[in-house]
Amino acid sequence: MSTEKMTLACPCHFGLESVLNYEIKKIGGEDITVTDGRITFSGTADIIARANLCLSTAERVLIQLAEFKAYSFEELFQGVKQIPWENFISKNDAFPVKGHSLNSALHSVPDCQSIIKKAAVDRLSSKYNISWFQETGPVHQIQFSILKDNVTIYLDTSGAGLHKRGYRKNSNAAPIKETLAAGIIDLARIRENTQFYDPFCGSGTFLIEAAYKALNIAPGIKRTFAAEKWDCFSPEIWKNERQNALAAVKKDNDFFAYGYDIDPECVELAQNNCAKAGVRNRVRIECADVSDFHTEGSGVIVCNPPYGERLLELKQAEELYTKTGQVFRSLDNGSKYYIISPHEDFERFFGKNADKRRKLYNGMIKCQLYMYFK
């Protein structure tokens, strides 16, 4: 299994496909196909381990086992039964099923779950010559997607989503997802010598992801993954990839990050999270209002200003955008800034049109990344 190529798939935030595409090429993925919110590629078991450890913008790493049309439960059953489940699932392993169906004849998700489970059991029963599965071993999460009667079956190698890096035990009220933050950091072109700033640092996610990027720290290095426990993959693969990731860390460079927040609790939270992430010595975090924000020479500013959904809060958010625009433009030192906001009139309140915009989704909220770099 270790040298056999498999079809892999990584979901990602809409708008970050090009960033993830570059990351996958960098780790050795081949035969790459980009679609909205998902990239498929081919790779061996070592690529699966490397992808889980090193991809900063992927939501998870899936093995794509099959793709076929199904208009009836019988077609679904037969399609799933053809999959060589015994190559991945041992007789004591757990293999729960979850997924979704959209615009398809087979629209009942619980019924589809039941049929897929039954087909997998049927196949494994004939291979292992047993009729009952205890499912007490490692979890092999089966995922299915049915879109316009086209069925795709996956195994999830990640377990918990890859945004769960292990450093953010706690967060403030409106955190930005780590994988989205990493994508924005990539778009902001953080380098080994970047002086980085976040004047609304919250729980410190941008600070940490920027440090990870600049120091080449694999985002998954502090956590484990579902497939590490699977019998079909050698533990040596995971051990070797972890060692390679640790050896690739760039400790000798000039990157430094500065974080500010008006809330003392956020400052303490960000400091704790930076310590958990192992980058506390590369970050300085202080309690400060954006009115007092300044940079030590030219830097890169990335931030997610507070956004009010209620009318009074919305007015306060608009006033904050205006103040932030005045402060940023007064820097006059060549600093570049990247601001994510869901407000459709952000540029008007900020006082300047962006050099470039990119549509992104923060959870279910449609946002724009406003990029000022000229």
Helix/strand layout:
Blueprint: E1 6-11, H1 17-26, E2 30-35, E3 38-43, H2 45-54, E4 62-69, H3 73-81, E5 97-102, H4 109-128, E6 141-147, E7 150-156, H5 178-187, E8 195-198, H6 205-215, H7 235-247, E9 256-261, H8 264-277, E10 283-287, E11 300-303, H9 311-330, E12 336-341, H10 346-350, E13 356-362, E14 365-372
Parallel strand pairs: 5-6, 8-9, 8-11, 9-10, 11-12
Antiparallel strand pairs: 1-3, 1-4, 2-3, 4-7, 6-7, 12-14, 13-14
Helix pairs in contact: 2-7, 3-4, 5-6
Describe the structure.
The chain is of the alpha/beta class and about 375 residues long. The protein has two domains: about 150 residues, VC0802-like, CATH 3.30.2130; about 160 residues, 3-Layer(aba) Sandwich (Rossmann fold). It is about 35% helix and about 25% strand. The strands form two sheets. The chain has a seven-stranded mixed sheet with strand order 2-3-1-4-7-6-5. It has a seven-stranded mixed sheet with strand order 10-9-8-11-12-14-13, covered by helices on one side. Helix 3 packs parallel to helix 4 and helix 5 crosses helix 6. The chain is elongated, with a radius of gyration of 23 Å. The chain starts with 5 loop residues before the first strand and ends with a strand. The model has no long low-confidence stretch (mean pLDDT about 95).
